[in-house]
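testing teh design pipeline on a random one, pls ignore if ur not involved
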């Protein structure tokens, strides 16, 4: 018996062309680092991208995300300085050829991109007990990452590039953005128009690491040790 209040809609069927377009966007998505153009992102385009992010699934429908839009040059300069300090520390964690390759990478576009977006997760949203989060507290963080992915794919479909900058001391970034202790900074994104991207992931193109074979990652029924998977010493 159907719910007397909620009338079900017939599931929409997508055409082969629509399905192909979705996969095209997924496979064309890249982590853009320093290839941004100075042109501002049109407000209506940004709104569509943020609406797509806000349409992401969230456990308990808690929608824990917020989007901090950063355009001010002085504030982005301070954030860039925090990145530079953390990046110097990160470089020292590698040795030999890896350190040289790391030093040659351009890992962010904080100053070059016309727009930066910090995506946060309010860990108090929804109250103390949230449906679906009762036994895994981090489901709110996972939900916010879904919003980041939606934003990224929508931006790519709009002709925008996105770069995720993760090399920060969290306390530094929290202070610069005025983020309260109950809110986690999940992603710091550089967003803007681009002329070109790599035809494959940039880190693969630059010889940092290759894409893993999908078949080696699929397991049936239980965990199975896969040969060649113990490469925890490699950077990603």
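output:
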């Amino acid at each position: 018996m159907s719910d007397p209040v909620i009338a079900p809609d017939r599931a929409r069927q997508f055409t082969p062309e629509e399905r192909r377009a979705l996969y095209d966007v997924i496979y064309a998505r890249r982590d853009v680092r320093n290839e941004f153009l100075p042109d501002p992102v049109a407000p209506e385009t940004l709104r569509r991208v943020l609406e797509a992010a806000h349409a992401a699934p969230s456990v308990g429908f808690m929608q824990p995300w917020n989007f901090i839009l950063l355009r001010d040059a002085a504030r982005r300069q301070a954030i860039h300085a925090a990145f530079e300090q953390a990046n110097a520390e990160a470089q020292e964690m590698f040795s030999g050829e890896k350190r040289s390759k790391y030093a040659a990478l351009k890992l962010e576009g904080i100053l070059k991109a016309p727009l930066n977006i910090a995506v946060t997760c309010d860990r108090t949203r929804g109250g103390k007990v949230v449906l679906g989060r009762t036994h895994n507290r981090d489901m709110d963080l996972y939900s916010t990452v879904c919003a980041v992915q939606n934003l990224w794919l929508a931006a790519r479909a709009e002709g925008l590039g996105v770069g995720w900058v993760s090399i920060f001391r969290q306390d530094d970034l929290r202070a610069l953005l005025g983020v309260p202790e109950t809110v986690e900074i999940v992603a710091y994104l550089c967003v803007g128009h681009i002329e070109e991207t790599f035809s494959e992931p940039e880190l693969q193109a630059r010889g940092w690491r290759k894409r893993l074979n999908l078949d080696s990652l699929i397991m049936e029924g239980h965990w199975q040790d896969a040969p060649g998977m113990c490469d925890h010493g490699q950077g990603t």
